[in-house]
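so ive been stuck on this for like two days lol. basically i have the seq below and the ligand is S-adenosylmethionine, smiles is in there too. i just want the complex predicted, nothing fancy, no docking runs or whatever. if the output looks off dont worry ill sanity check it later, just need somthing to start from for the group meeting slides
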Amino acid sequence: MDFITANLPPAPARVLDAGCGDGRLADRLRAVGYTVTAIDVDPARARPGVLVADICGFRDPEDEPYDAVVCSLSLHHVEDLSCALDSLAGLLARGGRLIVDEFAHEQAGGAIADRYFGAAGSLPLWRDKHRSFHTGDAMVEAVARRFSIASLARVPYLYRYLEDASLREAESVLGLQFVADRRQEPS
Ligand SMILES: C[S@@+](CC[C@H](N)C(=O)[O-])C[C@H]1O[C@@H](n2cnc3c(N)ncnc32)[C@H](O)[C@@H]1O
C-alpha cells in the first residue's frame, strides 16, 4: 500500500485498480479521496465497488481516461499479458501512470521456497503448478514495450505473508515494484 500511495497522483485522481481481488485496496484509496474503479475477472469477487471485468478489452463505463492504473499482484496472473497491457495503455490519460506491485517468481531459490512452504523440494512442485504465471522479467519487458519505466525496484516479498522479518535478506529480490508512464505520443 505504501509503495502504491507514494506513487499515485494526488487525490482526487481517477484510478483503475486492475485485478482488484477483494477490493480492499480500492476501498482504502476511496477513503482518502480517490475516484476508483475496481475490476476483477473472477465473478466470485463481485460486490458493491467491484466490477466483474477482464482487464483485456475493458472499457471504462464513463469513457473517461484514468490518471493512474494500479496492478497489485494481478499482472502475473493475466492470461494474455500483451492484450492486458495494450488495454491499460489505452485506458490511461496521456502521461498517466501505471503502478505495478508484483513478485518475480523466477528469482526464488529452493531454500526460500522450502522455508515458505515448510517442506523440502517445494519449488519444482510450485513451478509446475503455476506454469502459467508470467515471470517478473516478462512483465517488465512487456511494460517497457508500451510505457516509459520511471522506476523499478527489487524488494523483499514473502516476509509479508510469513510475517517473519528475518526472511527479508534471503528473499530480497523476489518482490518487484515499478512505475511506468504512458508515453505522450504513440510509439
Ligand atoms: C493474487 S490476486 C491479487 C488481488 C489484489 N489485487 C491484491 O493485491 O490482493 C490476483 C487477482 O487478479 C485477478 N485477475 C487475473 N487475471 C485478470 C484479468 N485478466 N482481468 C481482471 N482481473 C484478473 C484474479 O481474479 C485475482 O483476483
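Helices lie at 2-7, 24-31, 81-91, 110-117, 122-129, 136-146, 159-162. Strands lie at 14-18, 35-40, 51-52, 66-72, 92-103, 147-155, 175-182.
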